[in-house]
Write a structure and sequence with these properties.
It is a single chain. Helices cover about 35% and strands about 25% of the residues. The protein is built from four helices and six strands, in the order αααββαββββ. It has helices at about 1-15, 40-60, 60-70, 95-105; strands at about 70-75, 90, 120-125, 125-130, 135-140, 145-150. A six-stranded mixed β-sheet has the order 2-1-6-5-4-3. Helix 2 (about 40-60) packs antiparallel against helix 3 (about 60-70). The longest helix is centred in the N-terminal third of the chain and has 18 residues, at about 40-60.
Length: about 150
């Protein structure tokens, strides 16, 4: 019995020495001015939005990312299947910014080899864009373009 008590005491002591993970709380509201290109026509703005998202994800620029993503935007990880039942969804700008801070910034994506040349399907104030394996949705509200959805 004494060995068990000592083992339990050592285990509790060691558990108390571990550090709690940092909780990163990005702001939901943009804190910087939007880039000028977000007000350009879709054919100009969309490739630049895709490039800016990639560069901000590489450099850890949460302020710029907050300026690119719409408040009700979402990211959908389809997990490589057509079954929506296994999709993982980040349902808002807050969740998306948390995703960047926790999962993307520690292991950033590679730089783009060349400027994006997405295939665009423009329908009023919405644009569907396909760039490689990524499917994007952009919306124009308030006189500017926002990223509304990324599906990969």
């Amino acid at each position: 019995m004494p060995k068990r008590c000592v083992s339990l005491l050592v285990l509790l002591l060691l558990a108390g020495c571990t550090r709690a993970p940092l909780r990163i709380s990005p702001t939901a509201e943009p804190t910087t001015a939007p880039p000028a290109f977000v007000s350009a026509p879709a054919e100009v703005a969309i490739p630049q939005l895709i490039a800016a998202e990639r560069e901000a994800s590489r450099s850890g620029d949460l302020a710029l990312l907050a300026q690119l993503w719409a408040p009700d935007a979402r990211i959908v990880d389809t997990r490589g299947s057509a079954d929506p039942g296994d999709d993982f969804v980040w349902p808002s700008r807050n969740a998306i910014l948390d995703r960047y801070a926790v999962a993307v910034f520690p292991v950033p994506p590679p730089a783009l080899d060349e400027p994006p040349k997405p295939t665009l399907s423009i329908q009023g104030n919405q644009v569907q864009a396909i760039n490689g394996h990524d499917n994007w949705l952009f919306v124009n509200t308030g006189g500017r373009w926002w990223i509304a959805e990324l599906r990969y």
